[in-house]
Design a protein that fits this description.
- It is built from ten helices and 17 strands.
- It is of the alpha+beta class.
- Among the domains are: 166 residues, Elastase, domain 1 (Roll); 101 residues, no CATH class.
- A five-stranded mixed β-sheet has the order 3-4-6-5-17, covered by helices on one side. It has a three-stranded antiparallel β-sheet with strand order 11-12-13, covered by helices on one side. Strands 14-15-16 form a three-stranded mixed β-sheet.
- Strand 7 and strand 8 form a beta hairpin.
- Helix 2 crosses helix 3, helix 3 packs across helix 6 and helix 8 packs antiparallel against helix 9.
- The chain binds zinc ion.
- Zinc ion binds next to helix 2 and helix 3.
- Zinc ion (ZN) binds next to helix 2 and helix 3.
């Protein structure tokens, strides 16, 4: 894979770093030589800015438009609005090019162009809301931090938008595991896009270090993690927001507490996402070993294969309470179809070591088809076309401190293709809730944590509105019912 024309870096540490091969000059001639400064991964990853060819967001297959005024293209110093603009534009261009080349997508869920707001106000936050991506700024530890300046954060948010095109059903479904997978996909997106940069690959291959260790690549959003720790010291590890090199083992989310320190696995989607991201990173490391170990070409080959497997698996996996294990089974299935099973050992070892797949899932040489289609217990309504084919269930508002009026929600009740399970901590398969229990558990998590905008629904004397908590979901009226639906994927401090 040919790298783009080499450009210089700003300072000595960047010497030898090449620009992204996928950032194309805007036009031939004079404009083609225009350069901007940007970050490879994060302002606090320890590296200096690099210079890159001027990114062009308007000609990408998956178009992106930044709402702020375009500064004159040139190499700005970090700390200026102009630098932040081009750092974000570069990350967006790299992300858009990467995912359109892997998936063949040409549009976003909101339409042909994804709108991006680089500074939507004062919060330590970033979100995707089916209109576009929004980033923020805020003061932490005496310093102003802009979430949109970090390529890790930008590529994470873009991951939400990409997955939303690939699997729109995941948007509204009430499932803790699905919500966590969406967060994991964001982090996997940042890691895979980062691996396309020769500067990051060079750092990973220098000095003979193993791939599977904490590194600039595995550490995500160092600066946002630092800022959140200034507010709440137990909210992130000492050196980033989340680390893909971790030791978390699968637990069914409805058996976990809804909040806790960073060191603990909780059912909060960002916390629980670390199980899948950890399995993914271990699988990527195993895939590298399969093709001969860590070097520049193998990093590119493994990341390309991993991205194709991931995109294939998420499009096929059944939306069920134990979503992680279904995605993992579809990884193995995709590997058989796309790579003749070349990565079978690499993948199943990683997923079994994490408990994402139980050993008992491997009962035959081929993955077993599911024995039953649904484990729902009662009250299931026929799938509605408006709900992407997912069934809905009606629950009493009393279950959520709202008074008796019914609330309708989408449940993870698709037909399973593979009869696989996640692992219990000691032995065997993890007991899984029914579709309805899973939905109820996640909905209760949302109501407890104040994530639902109740609007004027519910009994005003009973309901708990949590006016100071950020909202990811809302109650809306649809077809005469009150429905619980998603408003955004919110990626800041819970
Ligand atoms: Zn997120």
């Amino acid at each position: 894979m040919a790298a783009a024309k080499k450009t210089g870096t700003m300072k000595k540490m960047g010497k030898g770093l090449k620009p992204s091969k996928i950032v194309k000059p805007k036009a031939a001639g004079k404009e083609a030589t225009q350069k901007v400064a940007a970050w490879d991964d994060d302002p606090m990853s320890g590296a200096l800015p690099v210079t890159r060819d001027l990114p062009d967001l308007s000609t990408a297959a998956m178009k992106v438009k930044i709402t702020e005024a375009v500064p004159a293209p040139k190499v700005y110093a970090p700390g200026s609005r102009e630098f932040r603009y081009w750092a974000a534009a570069d990350a967006l261009a790299r992300g858009s090019q990467f995912w359109s080349s892997i998936t063949g997508l040409k549009r976003w869920q909101p339409g042909d162009t994804l709108k991006v707001t680089l500074d939507a106000g004062a919060e330590l936050n970033a979100y995707y809301d089916r209109v576009g991506l929004s980033f923020f700024h805020d003061t932490a530890g005496g310093k102003i931090v802009y979430s949109g300046e970090s390529p890790d954060v930008v590529c994470h948010e873009m991951g939400h938008a990409v997955l939303d095109v690939l699997r729109p059903e995941l948007w509204d479904v009430m499932s803790g595991e699905v919500a966590a997978f969406h967060e994991s996909f964001g982090d996997m997106s940042a890691i895979l896009i980062g691996l396309q940069l020769s500067g990051i690959r060079q750092q990973l291959t220098a000095g003979g270090s193993p791939f599977y260790q904490s590194s600039r690549l595995s550490r995500l959003a160092e600066q946002l993690g630092w800022a959140l720790r200034q507010r709440r010291p137990d909210s992130a590890p000492p050196d980033c927001l989340r680390n893909a090199v971790n030791s978390f083992f699968y637990r069914a989310p409805d058996t976990l507490r809804p909040s806790g320190p960073d060191s603990e696995l909780t059912s909060e989607p960002h916390s629980f996402s670390r199980v899948f991201t950890g399995g993914f990173y271990e699988a990527l490391s195993n895939m590298l070993e399969t093709i001969g170990g860590i070097n520049d070409a193998n990093l590119l080959e493994a990341s390309d294969a991993m991205a194709h497997l991931l995109a294939d698996a998420v499009q096929s996996a059944s939306v069920v309470p134990e979503f992680y294990s279904q995605v993992a089974a579809h990884f193995l299935d995709a590997d058989r179809r796309l790579y003749q099973g070349k990565y079978n050992e690499a993948l199943k070892s990683a997923f079994v070591r994490r408990g994402i797949l139980s050993l008992q899932s491997m009962v035959s040489e081929e993955l077993s088809p599911a024995a039953s289609t649904s484990r729902s217990t009662r009250g299931m309504v026929a799938p509605s076309p408006a709900a992407n084919g997912l069934p809905t269930v009606k629950m009493s508002g009393n279950d959520f401190g709202m008074g008796g009026a019914a609330i309708v929600m989408y449940v993870p009740g698709e037909t399973r293709k593979f009869g696989v399970s996640s692992a219990a901590p000691a032995m065997g398969a993890a007991p899984q809730p029914t579709d309805e229990q899973s939905a109820r558990s996640f909905a209760e998590y949302l109501f407890r944590r104040g994530r639902v905008d109740l609007k004027d629904h519910g009994n005003p004397k009973m309901r708990v509105t949590h006016p100071y908590a950020r909202k990811t979901h809302e109650l809306i009226k649809r077809d005469g019912d009150v429905m619980l639906v998603r408003r955004n994927f919110d990626c800041g401090l819970d």
